[in-house]
Amino acid sequence: MTPPESIVVVVGGGPIALPAVAAARGAHLVIAADSGLDAARAVGLEPDMLVGDLDSVSEAGLAWARERGVLIETHPSDKDHTDTDLALHRAVGLGGRHITVLATDGGAAPGHRLDHLLGTIAALGSPSLAACDSVTAYVGGTALHVVHPGHSVAVALEPGATFSLLAAHGPCEGVSVEGARWPLDHASLHASSTRGISNRAADGPVVVSVAHGIVTVVVPEVVL
C-alpha cells in the first residue's frame, strides 16, 4: 500500500478537466503553482501550499490563501525555473514519492501558451524526480506517465485502448513494453522517433520500463 504522506499533487494554471480531479484523491499534500491555486479551487481542491512568483494568481485567491494559513513560498519574477518546476522540486523536497501534476491543455483558449505546456512536460523529466516511484500528469483529458530508469509503470487500460511512447526527454535505451498488441523488448527510441505512437493495450495492464533515458507513456483518452 502506498503511504499517504508520499502522495503529492501539483496543480498548474488554467482550467483543470474535472475527471482529472479524481487523481488528487488521497493526496497528502496539494501544492499550487501560482495561478494553479485558482484552478484548484475552481474544481473543489484546497491547496496546502502556494509556490511561485505570484504574478498570475488572483487577488481573491491570494487573500483566500492568507486567510486559510496556506504556506506561501514566493520567488522573484526573474528566475530560471517555471512555477510548476519550482512546485515539483518542493514536492520532492517534502518527501513526495508519488507525484501527480494537474494541468490544462489550454486548447484554443485566449492566452494559451504552448511553451508553458511544453515546459511542464519538460519539467517532468527533471533529475530531481528520478527517485520518485511514480510521476504522472493529467493534461486536459490526456494522462502522461513519465518513467525514469530503474522504475516501471503499470497502466490499467481496456483491451484495444490506445497509448503511445515518446522519448520526449532524449534518447531511450532498453525500453520494454508488456501487455500490448506490439510489445517491445529492450528497444531503442530516439527523440524524433515515432515508433511508439498508437500502440494498443492487450489483456491485463500495460507495463513499461526503461534502462537508460526517460520514456513518456501517453494515454490520450484517460478514464479515471
* Coarse structural class: alpha/beta
Give the terminus-to-terminus CA distance: 19 Å
Counting DSSP H or I runs of 4 or more residues, the number of helices is 4
Gyration radius over CA: 17 Å
Strand fraction equals 25-35%
Helical content class: 10-25%
Shape: elongated
Strand segment count: 14
The overall average pLDDT, rounded, is 91
Q: If strands are numbered along the chain, what order do they take across the biggest sheet?
A: 4-3-2-1-5-6-7-14-9-12
H/E topology pattern? EEHEHEHEHEEEEEEEEE
Query: In this structure, how is the largest beta sheet organized?
Result: 10 strands, mixed
Low-confidence stretches: none
Task: Describe the protein's architecture and organization.
With 224 residues, this protein is α/β, with parallel strands linked by helices. The protein has four helices and 14 strands. It has helices at residues 36-42, 59-68, 83-93, 114-123; strands at residues 7-11, 29-33, 49-52, 71-74, 98-103, 134-139, 142-147, 152-155, 162-166, 172-178, 184-189, 199-200, 206-209, 215-219. Strands 4-3-2-1-5-6-7-14-9-12 form a ten-stranded mixed sheet, sandwiched between helices. Strands 8-13-10-11 form a four-stranded antiparallel sheet, with no helix packed on it. Helix 2 (59-68) links the parallel strand 3 and strand 4 (71-74). The mean pLDDT is 91.
